[in-house]
Structures are given as structure tokens and as C-alpha cells.
Amino acid sequence: MARHRENPSRWLFGGVFEVLGRRNIPNSHAYDLKLREDLLGPYVKRLWLSYKPPGRAIRLNFETSLDQIDVISILEKPYAGEPFPGHGKINHPLAVIEVAVKQDWQDWRGALQHMKGVYVIHDIQTGKAYVGSAYGDDGIWSRWCQYVDRLHGGNVALKELVGQKGPQYARTNLRFALLESWPSIRASDELVLARESYWKDVLMSRQFGLNKN
Length: 213
Known about the structure:
Largest sheet: 4 strands, antiparallel
CATH superfamily of the largest domain: GIY-YIG endonuclease
Helix content: 25-40%
Oligomer: single chain
Order of helices and strands: EEEEEHEEHHEEHHHEH
Mean pLDDT: 92
Shape: elongated
């Protein structure tokens, strides 16, 4: 089961897997698995469950937890990713942006690929902000794909941060939000760059944040 990002007691059924063998990887719990489609196969990615694990246990026996698991709902179609929340409600860690890009969530792509805009990335551990923009022919979706590819988007300070803290730190602690966005055909690059500079001043991301210019 996969835990919901915002509701820790809500889980999506991911399937029943048979353990075929253990991999010879030192200091690792690594196994060769096979999805058993004959066991609840039609409910994979469709069955939402409610379950509150006891304490901090991370490895539990299914048999001892079964009577604590309740069915919430069954989706008509398999889960295909978090619905696009709207341009003004994006407030997501890089890890979620990464999944959206790699799984090609169509509603996210459709909403962002033909939009120019100004965005902010916060390091939630330090509160430092990086203000960036998407303009030209790229669009917001294409620009954010670059962050997924390299985790830092080519930005000097973010490149230093990822180099020091590592990829997992970036995925967990870099949070993305849109400050302003416009359809590409309606906004000039000059407008986008001017608004980017404005937000750098407002958020003081040059003096106290992660912008170097």
C-alpha cells in the first residue's frame, strides 16, 4: 500500500507481490518480486484504504493488521497521479514534481506546458528562496522538467546546495510554487523577466536567498 502524501491514514492499494528471492546486496533489504495479478489484480491503483499503523513500526505483518484496515472507496479507473490543483495552489516538493514529470501526468502537463511564469523554490529547512522564471518556447512544464533531470535546474546556488546536501535532500526539502503565470501567447519575455526581478526584490532572494543575480 502507498501512503497518501497529505493524509497519513489513507493508503492506495498497490498490489500483492510474491517474494521470489533475496538479492545479494550488502546491508540492504532487497528482494526479487512478482506481482500476483490473480490476487485482487483488478483493484490495483483503484482501492483506497484507511489504516493507522501502531507506533513507528515500518515492517508489519499483514495478518496482524488486516482487522484494522477499512475500505474507503474504489476508483472507477486506476489512479494516475495527484489531480492538478490549479496554478494558484501549487505548493509541492520536488519529489512530487519529479513523479508528475516521470509519470507524465497529463493534466499537469496540459496546464503548464503552454504557460510562461515566475516561480519560487523554497528550501524548507532554511527558509531560503530561489526565484526563477519560464519564458521563451520552453513553458513552465519544460523548465520544471530540467529540475527533475538535474535537481538544480542549472542554477548556481541550487547546484551548490544539491552538491552539499545530496539528491534526497533536494527532493524532500525544495518546495515549488507559482507566483504568477500567463498563457505563452499573451505574455512577452520582457514582462516575465521584469516580474521575476520584482519578486526577487520582494522576497529579498538576492540578499538572503539563493539567487546570485
